[in-house]
Amino acid sequence: MVSAPTLTAPAGSQGINELLDAARTRLARIGPQETHDRMTRGAILVDIRPAAQRAEHGEIPGALIIERNVLEWRLDPRSDARLSFTHYDLDVIVTCQEGYTSSLAAAALQDLGLLRATDLAGGFAAWQAAGLPTI
Questions:
Q1: Does 3 score more than 80 pLDDT?
Q2: CA 62 to CA 69: how far, in whole Å?
Q3: For 64-100, what is each residue's pLDDT tens digit?
Q4: Do residues 102 and 22 make contact, with C-beta atoms less than 8 angstroms apart?
Q5: Helices (H), the chain
Q6: Which of 75, 108, 114, 125 has the most CB atoms around its CB within 10 Å?
């Protein structure tokens, strides 16, 4: 006989809304135009969306594709799997489709010491709605 699943949250656990709120309190989130402007000044925009989303919705020219499942390994300056250009002062902006996963990812990058990490509020959808270039 299979027992019923436990629906009471374990003590000390947080729901996704609490995790998202906590992440966003640490971020200086920016909009599409500021993201575009910072990219022209050398900021790295990292698109963490899976290939299927990029194929369906499009991409931002100049964005670096690093899917979410390997983000920390590629951008942690201490990682053996890091990209050659990563460093602690890296001006990195993370984007996803609508700006939820990117907030969690940017907070994780801050935990690694990339204190300038933030995300694109509203994600790719906001970038596209602002009329900025896509491919």
A1: no
A2: 21
A3: 999 999 999 999 999 999 999 999 999 999 999 999 9
A4: no
A5: 16-26, 32-40, 51-57, 71-75, 101-111, 123-129
A6: 75
Could you count the other beta carbons within 10 Å of the beta carbon of residue 24?
A: 19
Residue 105, CA distances (Å) to 27, 30, 38, 68, 92 in order: 11, 15, 19, 7, 11
DSSP string, 16-37: HHHHHHHHHHH---B-HHHHHH
Q: What are phi and psi of 107, to 5 degrees?
A: -65, -40
Beta bridge partners of 45: 93
Q: Which residues pair with 120 in a beta bridge?
A: 30
Residue 63 amino acid letter: A
Which structure tokens are listed for 30? 């920016």
> For 17-71, what is each residue's pLDDT tens digit?
999 999 999 999 999 999 999 999 999 999 999 999 999 999 999 999 999 999 9
